[in-house]
Design a protein that fits this description.
The chain is of the alpha+beta class. It is 26% helix and 20% strand. Helix 1 packs across helix 2. This is NAD(P)H-dependent oxidoreductase subunit E.
Length: 105
Amino acid sequence: MSDKPYYQHHVFFCMNQRDEGRPCCADRGAQSAQEHAKKRIKQLGQSGQGKVRINKAGCLDRCEEGPVLVVYPEGTWYTYVDNEDIDEIIDTHLVGGKVVDRLKI
């Protein structure tokens, strides 16, 4: 058994939808951002074992800071506004190995 993680980076996008009017990631573009990230990672040839996995997650309990995603194994939390922010996280962190401080929460 290897000590190496199955994925170099495992990214979880909060997709939670709240009905009671509280802020939630689903109302802030999480679905389209997750789909964009998954497509872009595939285009870059970065998907699969030993590389990057983009996943959907239920509530990550940081609703007021959302939309949010978290990158493991580092445990780095990000917020984002648009696809340009997602691209910066992909290019700088997932491919380049450096945290995007301006989007970190």
